[in-house]
Amino acid sequence: MKLVAVTSCPTGIAHSQMAAENLLQAGERLGHDIDVEVQGAMGTQDELSSDAIAEADAVIITSDTSVSRDRFDGKLVLKGTVKDGVNNAEAVVEKAVELAEAGKTGSVTFGSGDDGEDADAGADDSSGDAAESDEPVRRGGDPEKGLFARLKKLFS
């Protein structure tokens, strides 16, 4: 089976690279052809070609940041966290293959988000409506502790 994947985290230095490597190894170990694009602070590495996307049976996105899905229209897109790609790459690939073989299309959320979503969903439903409309969702942790802030302090 042909798969493509995108990994992305706010910094894009370690975790997205680890997720990419684990997805590549898991896909190959399970006998599938997989291409992985890494997005991070340093830009995009191993960008997926339009041909690779067109040939893909499924798209895997393990990301803690926003990834544009426009180029994946009409494809099965599985969305999880970078943690899923790092810790459960084989299960992620197996889930993609299972859904693709079943003929599923559209967007599916999987992995560690599934375990926590039920508990978090209740909390989000009780206070999330006001927070969603009044405050934007912020991801990536404290910007004062981020890589660029640390580099700026180092060189100043």
Automatic annotation (TrEMBL):
GO terms for biological process: phosphoenolpyruvate-dependent sugar phosphotransferase system. Keywords: Kinase, Phosphoprotein, Phosphotransferase system, Sugar transport, Transferase, Transport. Residues 135-145 have a biased composition (Basic and acidic residues). Residues 1-98 form the PTS EIIB type-2 domain. GO terms for molecular function: kinase activity; protein-N(PI)-phosphohistidine-fructose phosphotransferase system transporter activity; protein-phosphocysteine-sugar phosphotransferase activity. Pfam families: PTS_IIB. Residues 104-145 are annotated as: Disordered. Residues 114-134 have a biased composition (Acidic residues). One of its GO terms (cellular component) is plasma membrane. The keyword Membrane does not apply. This is PTS sugar transporter subunit IIC. The lineage of its organism: Archaea, Methanobacteriati, Methanobacteriota, Stenosarchaea group, Halobacteria.
